[in-house]
Design a protein that fits this description.
With 337 residues, the protein is an alpha+beta fold. The chain contains ten helices and 13 strands. It is found in: Cytoplasm.
Length: 337
């Protein structure tokens, strides 16, 4: 039997950095409010000439180099994004394929918003285990600075731009975990969940087929992300615990055997509340939200890449990723290094 193994990681975050103080220059807000409510100090903003695919391709190049592969080795590209280059056609994954010159790859987007990377990694695992793809690029890439309403202080302060990527290879189960290159982690299991009945809690109302934009229309705030912050907060705290507990129980692991949680970076307070409820040390829930804010589907692979680069991931660890977001969707992947 084949198994799915992460053999390389990469990330790209645009250099332009926007602090809370800069936001306070044009919005009625403050570093104190934003940091105390969310843990965010900065976010990075894509340049005008950058699209989501540019960020994704930059992260993917780094992941390929890390895995020792070339673009021609890849047979499937999955891009998790909810801020695509184009409105539906073509997919961002096809643009990434062209930017990389990955001409042997099939390419498609995965739309599960902030859970997108978790969903895409499980999709990659299914392809890898069945043997229908051998080397897969899984990318999370977002430019939320073009999805938020910059006059709405309750949402725009929360988000940032960036991309992360991993290479997933289909390897024989007996191959074990022998190569010294890192991060090299087996994707052992995933849980994926959706709650479409709460679709309106986090929504970009206009611009799709439900409310198409016609010449001369001005939908104002409805063109942008709108959120019931309280509802999403409460959902997220519960979702994190549910996913972790289900993955541990199903795989015969205890909380003490869980070395790291790599959560979607939406709000540091959400992580603290979830950790408290679970009785899990919050220090083992990786957080870089202070620097990047919420980069939606990109946040987990950016975090993974940072942890690997910092030497925090060591052989023999159990790691759970947890994503949650619009849909509502949530889920997680169990990795073993
Ligand atoms: N600066 C200053 N004041 C603000 C700001 C701001 N940026 N934003 C809102 N306020 C004010 C509000 O107007 C309100 O004032 P009022 O009491 O006079 O009406 C007050 O602060 C409190 O606002 P609340 O919305 O009640 O604040 P809350 O404690 O709920 O925190 C927050 C808001 C941080 C957004 C929180 O609800 C949250 O983190 N929710 C989860 C959001 C999230 O994670 N979303 C992303 C999910 S991932 C995805 O799929 C994209």
């Amino acid at each position: 039997l084949q198994e799915a193994v992460i053999t390389g990681a990469g990330a790209y975050v645009p250099p332009r950095r926007m602090s809370n103080d800069e936001l306070a220059g044009f919005l009625d807000t403050s570093d104190e409010w934003i940091f105390s409510k969310t843990g965010i100090h900065n976010r990075h903003i894509a340049a005008e000439d950058q699209a989501t695919s540019d960020l994704g391709a930059a992260a993917a190049r780094q992941a390929l180099a890390d895995a020792g592969l070339t673009p021609l080795d890849i047979d499937l590209i999955l891009v998790a994004t909810s801020s695509p280059d184009y409105n539906g056609l073509p997919s961002t994954a096809c643009v990434v394929q062209d930017l990389l010159g990955a001409t042997n790859a099939a390419a498609m987007d995965v739309a599960a918003v902030c859970s997108g990377f978790v969903y895409a990694l499980e999709t990659a695992r299914a392809f890898a285990r069945s043997g229908s793809a051998r080397r897969i690029l899984v990318i999370g890439a977002e430019i939320y600075s073009r999805v938020v309403d910059w006059s709405d202080r309750s949402t725009c302060v929360l988000f940032g731009d960036g991309a992360g990527a991993v290479v997933v290879e289909s390897l024989p189960e007996s191959a074990g975990n022998t190569a010294p290159r890192f991060p090299r982690a087996r994707v052992l299991d995933s849980v994926l969940k959706s709650r479409g009945s709460d679709a309106q809690a986090l929504v970009r109302p206009a611009g799709g087929t439900r409310r198409p934009v016609n010449p001369g229309d001005n939908f104002g705030a409805d063109q942008f992300l709108q959120m019931d912050g309280r509802k999403v907060y409460n959902f997220a705290v519960g979702a994190i615990g549910e996913v972790i507990q289900e993955l541990l129980t199903r795989n015969g692991l205890s909380l003490a055997e869980l070395d790291w949680v790599i959560p979607h970076q939406a709000n540091a307070r959400i992580l603290e509340a979830a950790a408290r409820r679970l009785k899990y040390p919050v220090e083992q829930m990786y957080s870089n939200i202070a620097e990047y804010a919420n980069t939606s589907a990109a946040s987990i692979p950016i975090a993974m890449n940072e942890m690997a680069a910092a030497g925090m991931l060591k052989p023999g660890q159990n790691i759970i990723t947890v994503g949650f977001g619009a849909g509502l969707t949530y889920g997680g992947n169990l990795l073993r290094t």
